[in-house]
Amino acid sequence: xxxxxxxxxxxxxxxxxxxxxxxxxxxxxxxxxxxxxxxxxxxxxxxxxxxxxxxxxxxxxxxxxxxxxxxxxxxxxxxxxxxxxxxxxxxxxxxxxxxxxxxxxxxxxxxxxxxxxxxxxxxxxxxxxxxxxxxxxxxxxxxxxxxxxxxxxxxxxxxxxxxxxxxxxxxxxxxxxxxxxxxxxxxxxxxxxxxxxxxxxxxxxxxxxxxxxxxxxxxxxxxxxxxxxxxxxxxxxxxxxxxxxxxxxxxxxxxxxxxxxxxxxxxxxxxxxxxxxxxxxxxxxxxxxxxxxxxxxxxxxxxxxxxxxxxx
Length: 312
Ligand code: ZN
Fold this sequence. Notes:
The protein has helices spanning 3-11, 30-40, 76-82, 86-97, 191-198; strands at 17-23, 102-112, 122-131, 135-136, 140-153, 156-170, 203-207, 213-214, 229-233, 237-246, 258-265, 270-276, 288-297, 300-307. The protein is built from five helices and 14 strands. The protein is an alpha+beta fold. Zinc ion binds next to loops.
């Protein structure tokens, strides 16, 4: 079967169900909301007390299958709960048969139509939305499979959850040429930051409501929940707040050992980046550093930090 034949067979699954009439294992509930907020460090008052709503990003938490439903587990109750459909298994089996035996989750996109509240009983259907043509990636060649889950309460759509995986044939690891650095994942939430980097500006989001600065870029303010924001440009001064020295595992384009810094900018936000032009064993907590933009190849410029003069 050549690539075109395979892709035609894969595309035939677009629009087929991956899960039908699934139901959440538990209604939306206060204990799960509390655990989530504790784990995330989210103290938004909207998620506690009378009239509390669930954090919107918990959407998937309410529909996750239990361990009993993984890998075709034989717990009939769990199977029924997740509403699993055969078409998705068939699609994955077809890909396995074509040598695409490895899988990696690549990204997830959610939309929220109305908040979920304790007591809401969620139901969901998942459809195989698209299967990409064969793509060559650093991991190996394969196909991106996107599913869309519609989550409903009492028949009303409350949110959608799009999930994309790459099913691929692992690339052979021999005689690999020197690789480029990985590309940043640019999405709707962080595109403005990478536009700034192109202009050699390090832009920090600022909440339009409460002026709290935030980095990395997020769609809303963690302090007050407001969605509106503008940006301020970092002055470039910072200090090493913490760091690790990477020895293993080796990644293409990086030569261990090297130091990865958690840099605290003078503005107060923190960013993970390279500490450059400093031997890895000379990086220290508290070391003053300064922002610079370094071009790694034709398509990649990154903000990095070098030690201030006299700091080493
Ligand atoms: Zn705010």
